[in-house]
Amino acid sequence: MNLHTFFEPFFRGSKTQQTDGYGVGLAITKQIIEAHGGQIFAQNLLAGGLSVNIRLPRS
Q1: What are the domain boundaries of the chain?
Q2: CATH architecture label of 1-59
Q3: d(Cα 46, Cα 29) in Å, to the nearest integer?
Q4: Which of 1, 16, 20, 26 suits 49 as a labelling partner, its CA being 20 to 30 A distant?
Q5: Backbone phi, then psi, for 26, in 5-degree steps?
Q6: What average pLDDT does range 4-31 have in this prediction?
């Protein structure tokens, strides 16, 4: 999985089957977080799985 495209709306992976792709949920989430001055990051874990971190300002 390319994490650079993880937050893009309607990204479709290299496979043409419906099992590899994303909708708009993560793209909307990113837009809302950034509109509030925050950031969202995703990274693959060495032991497997995915970690998503959200940083929001304290105001």
Answers
A1: 1-59
A2: 2-Layer Sandwich (3.30)
A3: 25
A4: 16
A5: -70, -30
A6: 69
Residue 1 has pLDDT above 70, yes or no: no
Helices (H) and strands (E) in the chain, counts: 1, 2
Q: Give the C-alpha separation, 21 to 1, whole Å.
A: 10
pTM higher than 0.70: no
| Dihedral Cα 16, 13, 52, 29, nearest 10 deg | -80
Record the tokens describing residue 37, joined without a space.
Answer: 């001055």
26: Cα separation from own chain's centroid: 5
* Cβ contact 42:6 at 8 Å: yes
- Mean pLDDT of the 30-44 span: 93
Q: What are the C-alpha distances in Å from 17 to residues 3, 14, 24, 49?
A: 19, 9, 18, 21
